[in-house]
Write a structure and sequence with these properties.
The protein is built from 4 helices and 2 strands; from the N terminus they run αααββα. By secondary structure, the protein is mostly helical. The protein has one domain (1-131): Bromodomain-like (Up-down Bundle). The chain starts with a helix and ends with a helix. It is found in: Membrane.
């Protein structure tokens, strides 16, 4: 059930990223691309581990989720101004520190990415703990 939950979040994140870029026309910045690199494989790995159930997928999926979480937190902090814009890896194209979309006055794309990677990591970590019992 936890792997399914993690896959559902990863699939939603993948479809959301594609929706923002391909339907809404928001060009992904460099940090968005790095987050996609770590989110998109999760949408593929996790359902493969469901039939038959293979909790060993946590070995591969949890590092992807944690590294993606690191990029997402960095991106979110950059947009909040907690990290200097000079630390931004964006050299051309969309700016990593610019807020392109915001809902409810606080919900930005990097914050949604932080939430998605955090929930996936928690689900996978819980799966790992369940597997050890």
């Amino acid at each position: 059930m936890l792997i399914f939950t993690a896959w559902l979040i990863a699939a939603s994140g993948t479809l959301g990223a594609l929706f923002f870029s391909d339907i809404m026309g928001i060009a992904p910045c460099t940090l968005c691309w790095y987050q996609r690199i770590f989110m998109f494989p999760l949408a593929i790995f996790l359902p493969l581990a469901l039939f038959p159930l293979d909790t060993k997928v946590v070995r591969y999926a949890l590092p992807l989720a944690l590294i993606g979480l690191g990029f997402a937190v960095f991106h979110w902090f950059l947009q909040l101004g907690l990290i200097s814009p000079s630390a931004s890896p964006c050299a051309q194209g969309s700016s990593c520190s610019e807020v392109e979309a915001e809902w409810f006055g606080f919900l930005t794309i990097p914050l949604m990415s932080v939430c998605a990677f955090a929930l996936i990591s928690i689900s996978l970590f819980a799966t790992s703990i369940q597997g050890k019992k």
